[in-house]
Design a protein that fits this description.
Elements: E1 5-10, H1 18-21, E2 30-34, H2 41-48, E3 55-59, H3 60-68, E4 73-81, E5 90-92, E6 107-110, H4 116-129, E7 137-140, E8 155-157, H5 164-169, E9 175-177, E10 187-189, H6 194-205, E11 212-217, H7 218-223, H8 227-242, H9 255-267, H10 277-280
Parallel strand pairs: 1-2, 1-3, 6-7, 6-9, 7-8
Antiparallel strand pairs: 3-11, 4-11, 5-10
Length: 285
Amino acid sequence: MADRLILRTALGKHDHVRPLKDGSIQSDRVRLEMVEFDPLPKAFRHMVRGGDLDVSEMALTTHLLAHHYRKPLTALPLPLWRRLHHANLVCASGATIAAPKDLEGKKVGVRAYSQTTGVWIRGILASQYGVDLGKITWVTMEDAHVAEYQDPPGVVRHTGGKSLRELLLTGELAAIMGERDVDPNNIRPVIPDAEAAGEKWSRDTGIFPVNHVVSVRSALLHEHPWLADELMRMFEEARVKSGVRTLPYGLEPNRAAMQMLLDFAAVQRLTPRTYRVDELFPKAA
């Protein structure tokens, strides 16, 4: 045990990874040295910009951009965080917006254009509701985690100091999205009956969106060919031990959902071509 590989690791505050954080899931080969980031997306930026992490939970679109810009990171198909997104696109309670198409010609805010939730919501707006994404001005608050990425035309940066919520409630934005925990005060979903609509969309498509996976420094996987399998085992054991009912880990159960996000990312000009899931998850292919 003394010669175990020590990996500086950042994970979110999920019940299904708690057995890894509290040490109740052990390995004869690996010791995870946990590093806390609050909020968690700081870990994504730290990892892709050359920080000292070895393993990190990672937004899937951040890893996609890291892969595109040849960052030395490899993804493991461990969907640590996922949710339905229909209810996350909100407008002011008194807004005249009755349906998603009403957003055309208006400004919609999101923390960053590359934020995974935003990619999911824009993709759903276009594919399910026929929204012309090019007719919306996307207002962002910050750049992408991957420094080389530049937002496409039609995306503008807000620099005035107000939060997305403040911009929404003062009427400067027609809608906002990407809030992890949506505060219901003074707002409502843009999509009518959003929770039910999201559940129906998931049933109809067979998709439950994936937001976060796990990224590992590629050099470690090359140096230790057994490491990917050992990490997959540890995360799976933690998931089972936690007793939390989550959707399965692994590539095949999540292939369709992750490929849909990669397709959306290409349409929305995050990447110049559509990447295939197997390109991002070579250790699982």
